[in-house]
Amino acid sequence: MMILRTCMEQKPKVTGPSTSSFSLSSSPSSSSSSSSPPTTPSKLQAPPSFLSSTQRWTRQYDLLVCHSLADSDIEEAKRLVSFLEASPCSLRCFLWQRDVCVGGAVPTEFCQAVQESHMQALLITPNFLQEEWCKYMMHQVLAEGPMSNRLIPLIKNLPHSQYPHELKFYIYINLNYNTDKAYTRISMTVFNYLENLVKNERAHEHSMDSSSGADGGEASSGADELIPDSDSAETSIPVEEMHHVDEHL
């Protein structure tokens, strides 16, 4: 079976263009400059904080890449993953033919990987649409997050008329033209998702803290009302009573 054959492949060595800052530009000129001194590594820009956030590490993978068993699709998926895993992206990708556990049940392994991935990318090609296994994987991804922003459809050698009806509400990325630009757009989509994930979590925590503080303040205010100030209660005399006392004197 081709699945068992490909499971034995080792994870390819990730290589990518060097960069002097956290930049996702695909232009070669953006990664180096003749006027820059050779000691620039000490001035490297720190990666965004959301890449080291606890919210990101609640799942094992940043992106799952789903593709058909056709050789051309496998090679395209490998190129994409190599780009995303290389610096400066350094994303954690799941490539099922490479990362499934040897001896494990493929459907179980794939479903677990979907649950452990923040986002899923479907490499939709004519071969993808012809394989029942790919259709099964697509439906599993849709079931995990229907109408969510966790799905990235990718089309390759596929006219728009053949785009799956199940994905008609999802905007796809076309890999037929500028591949480097498309890869960069994919990485930015994942980055935006992770950044928003952290922002939403922080906003939720801030809202919870504010709510707890307000509840504590109301409880304290209520306690103050129940316990009167003994000094003011003993010494305060209404103005009318003071006049009444003066008249008697």
Can you describe this structure?
The chain has 249 residues and is α/β, with parallel strands linked by helices. The chain contains nine helices and five strands; from the N terminus they run H-E-H-E-H-H-E-H-H-E-E-H-H-H. The chain has a five-stranded parallel β-sheet with strand order 2-1-3-4-5, sandwiched between helices. Strand 1, helix 2 and strand 2 form a beta-alpha-beta unit.
List keywords for this structure.
five-stranded parallel β-sheet
Give the topology.
Blueprint: H1 2-7, E1 61-66, H2 71-85, E2 93-95, H3 96-99, H4 106-115, E3 117-124, H5 126-130, H6 132-144, E4 151-155, E5 173-174, H7 179-226, H8 230-235, H9 239-248
Parallel strand pairs: 1-2, 1-3, 3-4, 4-5
Helix pairs in contact: 4-6
Short characterization:
The protein is of the alpha/beta class and 249 residues long. The chain is built from nine helices and five strands; from the N terminus they run H-E-H-E-H-H-E-H-H-E-E-H-H-H.
